[in-house]
Write a structure and sequence with these properties.
The complex is a heterodimer of chains A (about 525) and B (about 475).
Chain A: E1 2-4, E2 7-9, E3 17-21, H1 24-37, E4 44-48, E5 59-62, H2 66-73, H3 77-83, E6 87-89, E7 91-95, E8 103-107, H4 120-129, H5 141-147, E9 168-172, H6 173-186, E10 190-192, E11 196-201, E12 208-213, E13 218-219, E14 223-226, H7 233-238, E15 243-245, E16 254-261, E17 270-275, E18 278-285, E19 288-295, H8 302-311, E20 322-325, E21 329-331, E22 335-336, E23 339-341, H9 354-367, H10 376-402, H11 410-417, H12 422-434, H13 447-456, H14 473-492, H15 497-504
Parallel strand pairs in A: 3-4, 3-14, 4-10, 7-17, 14-23
Antiparallel strand pairs in A: 1-2, 5-9, 6-9, 7-8, 11-12, 12-13, 15-21, 16-19, 16-20, 17-18, 18-19, 22-23
Helix pairs in contact in A: 1-6, 1-9
Chain B: H1 2-10, E1 18-20, E2 32-33, H2 38-45, H3 49-56, E3 59-61, E4 63-67, E5 75-79, H4 89-101, H5 113-120, E6 140-143, H6 145-158, E7 162-164, E8 168-173, E9 179-184, E10 189-191, E11 195-197, H7 204-209, E12 214-216, E13 225-231, E14 241-246, E15 249-255, E16 260-266, H8 273-282, E17 293-296, E18 300-302, E19 306-307, E20 310-312, E21 318-319, H9 327-340, H10 349-375, H11 383-390, H12 395-407, H13 420-429, H14 446-466, H15 470-477
Parallel strand pairs in B: 1-7, 4-14, 11-20
Antiparallel strand pairs in B: 2-6, 3-6, 4-5, 8-9, 9-10, 12-18, 13-16, 13-17, 14-15, 15-16, 18-21, 19-20
Helix pairs in contact in B: 1-6, 1-9, 4-14, 5-14, 9-10
Classes of the chains: A alpha+beta (about 525), B alpha+beta (about 475).
Chain lengths: ~525, ~475
């Protein structure tokens, strides 16, 4: 009972027991977070971590938002990278996306600086028209550092160009899961490694009542978090979350991947290169890489796709390639009754937003933590925010497929011809017409990310901001040259990524990468 | 405002800026209260704050006092800035709710630096001495709008803006429906690429010429008239605006250095003009200094704020009663969006669409905030209040109220000028209290939380007591010359 405002409100079915179904990175990330914020004297958290749920890939990729988790959990990033064969991530390099032979970076951090309150890219567009050919990424500290494979964490001094970027990470997935598991278990989370054989619902309202386990025991909780990935054991099989079909917009439905040995220094960025029927990606780890190929099964068979992957590996394959289906639907309700679906399966990996969405999902649950099992206002707000967040990321992904000049295969032709969601259509049109980026509610990727991709995919605005004409061209040239020089000189002072890893987060070489 | 900022930002590279100002059309401004963002506008123009106060008979504003809104006899304060000593407002509220459930008797408003200082008549024009309070402090101004307009006129003219003291007698349209030129009363024809309509309620260009249409909000905000009168000041110079709810509307009180601006915003369905004027005159601090003026308005907004090559600003764009002092701010925001989306000659409709999307959202979020004051009342003593407390409200606001009532959470929408601290102050002031607090707060040590709140209260009290008195501060730093 809690007393508020003089009156006494009786809380029915107060949430005290939380069951997280499915281990893996998702389950243990949820468990570690809840273990950290929920006191064991008030809450009991159980993870059902049997090995039979479909697993994600070999690697996990974190966006800069992962720092919030580090901070909350008190994780030392050097220790984390050392134990997960991890590397730093300044962004991603995209090859052959706009047109074959072209490359661009989507790096984390600012692109240039405003002049006279006019955003940088308008000046860049203007100078480009006048014949200057400096690449957009020459104005991004993160991209310049990434290209040279240099890395050090940004400095706090806001006047330095070395403060103007951020970074994420690449991890070996299984090691990350076990790192988070140890953290969670040290914070009072318990683990059960048996299999769920049945999800029992309450007759009167359809809430999940209990999980029947393979050994005949029943596990009952107040709140269930479904981390079973593609099979969505609770969310899809037991409760109807409702699904929206996003397959018309996201053409790749399969992903085949394999970890490879690597003897070269790991790059501080992931790579994604478009090919005729999909795209190839590479995630660098210490001593190995995770290579993969995402494709459309309408345009290429699984065998051919595997062949394509194996023909372009960065090193010797360490195991047999594994195939997964990509999830191209999105729940309409992420939280229904007393069950929260923390992952919709294997999302399109193009921007590696899967882990990020798990993280924001669990953080949002903490913010909206319910008092009782049935808490419609909390559920409503959770679903409203989560839905918008997914849609904005969806738009960011569709943009790559839609805005391409490639016409070399039926795959790309159908991408170019597709109708995109209204929010994205508006964004593309506004940018194309006048170089402005419309931002909508709950965008994760900021304006600089959108710019890097819009311009990287060769959308050439017809006009730039007329106010960029207020400054003399000569002044603009000087200012932009200064930005490039400062960035170049700043980056020159950074150690190489390999050296930084070697000094601070060196994983044991050799051993089993898998 | 438009001419000044455009002159500042456009420099001499554009074909020139002309302001057509008819001497016959008066300036509505009677005394304007603002919100802290006005300081950014002045900074963008490079105007010194004290110089500005001297030129406009300005005073410092720390927030608004609302009297008799939730219940007759009750008052609350909506402070600028945030509560507590950090920016984590929701968490402070949760802590306070948990403490309150266990016997805490201090009000949430005692955790606001601005509220405590305002009640003591003291001001911080810059930052309080205690560093932990720097992030939660904010202030705005009251000033004489006519003097501000004069000041900005001088500013713009010295930067090349041409002023034509003429009346527009005809608007000439282009084939595509945009505006080609204005015909003035001296026969002159003024062509331009872009027209900014600052003609007030009637919207000479946006409505008169372009027939843009108006979305009427009077079913939510039924007040449609105001009687305004300045009076002599007497007594203490308060560093806040006061809004007192009355039977058929509410009365504002805006203290300036040389006088006090007053006005009664009312609903003509429930009171006659004469009665309203009499009520206004009966509630002044000193003798009136002019004849009361009557204003008529329809709350709402143009269907498009940017239509073809015409952008409406101020009252030409829409009208929201000045309950939360947002009029000047909406002009400022319109200009910010215009500068962000500055068009070339073609005035691409996509720019206008984006401008309208963002600007209309802003209007609607402020609209919701103002409706909240009317909706959340227990007053049943007059037809206006019975109507308002029972009326249907926009879904966006209903959802926000529901969420706050459930858990003390403030739903955040895009383009909402008012942030969590503002909404919390008004929700609580209007008597909407969360039914429960965040269960995770129960994990914390209650005694520590009580001690924490006590600490914040004492830091705030000490800082507020150490601050200069409002009149002393102005006297020393920004004394205006007698008019």
């Amino acid at each position: 009972m809690i007393a508020v405002n003089g009156s006494v409100e009786v809380i029915v079915e107060r949430v005290q027991r939380i069951a997280i179904v499915g281990g893996g990175t998702t389950g243990w990330l949820a468990a570690a977070t809840l273990g950290r914020v929920l006191s064991p004297s008030c809450y009991r958290i159980l993870v059902i971590d049997s090995a039979n749920y479909e697993r994600g890939g070999f690697s996990e990729v974190a966006l800069p938002s992962f720092h919030r988790l580090n901070q909350l959990l008190g994780i030392n990033e050097h220790d984390l990278l050392q134990k997960t064969r991890g590397t730093f991530r300044l962004g991603a390099r995209f090859a052959n996306w706009g047109a074959p032979g072209e490359r661009y970076f989507h790096a984390f951090g600012s692109l240039g600086a405003k002049l006279e309150a006019v955003p940088f890219h308008h000046y860049w567009l203007k100078l480009r028209r006048l014949g200057e050919r400096f690449a957009l990424e020459d104005y991004s500290t993160a991209a310049v550092a990434a290209k040279q494979s240099r890395f050090a964490p940004p400095v706090p001094d806001r006047s330095s160009v070395l403060s103007l970027y951020s970074y994420g990470y690449h991890f070996q997935a299984a090691s990350l899961a076990s790192y988070l598991r140890q953290y969670a278990q040290a914070h009072g989370v318990t683990r059960n490694d048996r299999r769920v054989v049945e999800v029992q619902l309450r007759g009167e309202d359809g809430f999940i009542d209990a999980l029947l386990m393979e050994d005949g025991t029943r596990i009952s909780a107040d709140l269930y978090i479904d981390c079973t990935g593609v099979c969505a054991m609770l969310a899809r099989q037991a409760l109807d979350m409702g699904y929206q079909d996003w397959s018309p917009w996201l053409p790749c439905d399969r992903f085949v991947s394999v970890p490879c040995a690597s003897s070269v220094d790991p790059a501080p960025y992931s790579e994604s290169s478009a090919e005729a029927t999909g795209w190839r990606r590479r995630v660098p780890l210490q001593h190995c890489t995770d290579d993969g190929f995402a494709y459309s099964s309408r345009h290429i068979s699984d065998d051919e796709a595997t062949g394509t992957l194996l023909a372009g590996l960065s090193g010797e394959a360490l195991v047999e390639p594994s195939l997964m289906r990509l999830t191209r639907s999105c729940p309409t309700r992420f939280w229904n009754k007393n069950c929260i679906a923390l992952t919709g399966g294997n999302p399109e990996p193009l921007e590696h937003t899967g882990l990020h969405l798990v993280q924001t999902g669990i953080a949002r649950l903490v913010t909206l933590f319910p008092v009782s099992r049935n808490s419609p206002p909390d559920i409503e707000e959770y679903n409203r925010l989560t839905g918008m967040e997914h849609e904005r990321i969806r738009d960011f992904l569709i943009l790559r497929y839609k805005c391409t000049q490639r016409a070399d295969s039926p795959f790309w032709e159908s991408c170019r011809d597709m109708q995109v969601p209204e929010t994205l259509r508006r964004k593309i049109e506004l940018f194309h017409r006048c170089g402005r980026v419309a931002m909508f509610e709950e965008e994760h990727f900021g304006e600089d990310s959108w710019l890097a991709v819009l311009l990287g995919q060769n959308i050439d605005p017809m006009d730039y901001d007329p106010l960029a004409d207020v400054l003399d061209v000569s002044e603009v040239k000087v200012a932009l040259a200064q930005m490039r020089t400062m960035i170049k000189e700043g980056v020159d002072t950074l150690p190489t990524h390999a050296r930084y890893l070697q000094q601070h987060c060196r994983a044991t070489p050799g051993g089993s990468c898998t | 405002m438009a001419a000044a900022i455009l002159a500042r930002r456009l420099g001499h590279r554009f074909g020139g800026i002309r302001v057509i100002e008819s001497p016959e059309i008066g300036i509505i401004g009677v005394g304007e209260a603002t919100i802290p963002a006005i300081r950014l506008f002045n900074q963008a123009l490079g105007i010194d704050e004290n110089e500005f106060l001297r030129q406009t008979q300005g005073t410092i504003k720390l927030g608004i006092e609302f009297k008799d809104w939730s219940t007759v006899g009750e008052s609350y304060f909506h402070p600028f800035g945030a509560h507590g000593t950090s920016l984590d407002q929701v968490s402070l509220l949760q802590e306070w709710l948990a403490c309150r459930a266990s016997g805490e008797t201090g009000g949430f408003d005692e955790l606001s630096l601005n509220t405590v200082a305002a009640r003591l008549g003291r001001v911080f024009a810059y930052s309080p001495s205690d560093e932990s309070l720097a992030a939660v402090f904010a202030h705005a101004f009251h000033f004489d709008a006519s003097l501000y307009a004069q000041y900005l006129r001088g500013y713009a003219q010295t930067r090349g803006v041409l002023r034509l003291e003429r009346k527009v007698i005809d608007v000439e349209l282009r084939e595509d429906g945009g505006i080609a030129a204005l015909k003035l009363d001296d026969g002159q024809r003024v062509e331009a690429d872009l027209f900014i309509d600052c003609s007030g309620f009637r919207g000479l260009l946006i409505e008169g010429a372009l027939k843009t249409g108006y979305e009427d909000w009077t079913h939510w905000l039924p007040c449609d008239r105001a009687a305004a009168v300045p009076c002599q000041s007497g007594g203490e110079l308060t560093p806040y605006t006061r809004s007192t709810a009355r039977a058929a509307g509410w009365q504002w009180r805006i203290p300036l250095q040389h006088r006090i601006g007053n006005g009664y915003v009312y609903c003509s369905r429930f009171i006659s003009d004469d009665e309203a004027t009499a009520t206004l005159l009966a509630h002044l601090d000193g003798p009136p200094r002019a004849e009361p003026r009557l204003l008529r308005f329809t709350t709402g907004r143009r269907k498009k704020l940017w239509n073809k090559n015409c952008i409406a600003l101020g009252l030409a764009a829409g009208f929201l009663e000045p309950l939360e002092s947002t009029s000047i701010h909406l002009i400022q925001k319109g200009l910010t969006h215009l500068l962000n989306l500055f068009p070339d000659r073609g005035c691409d409709p996509r720019l206008a669409d984006e401008f309208n999307r963002v600007a209309i959202n802003e209007y609607e979020r402020i609209r919701d905030f103002i409706i909240l004051h009317y909706k959340a009342t227990t007053r049943q003593d007059a037809p206006l209040w019975r109507h308002c407390s029972g009326m249907e409200i926009p879904d966006t606001l209903a959802y926000k109220i529901r969420q706050f009532r459930n858990s003390g959470r403030v739903v955040k929408y895009d383009h909402d000028l008012f942030a969590a601290p503002n909404w919390i102050a008004v929700f609580m002031g209007q008597g909407i209290l969360p039914q429960r607090h965040d269960p995770l707060v129960d994990q914390r040590d209650l005694a520590q939380m009580h001690a924490h709140l006590k600490h914040i209260r004492s830091v705030i009290r000490e800082s507020a007591e150490a601050a200069p008195r409002h009149d002393a501060y102005l006297l020393q730093n920004a004394r205006a010359v007698a008019p």
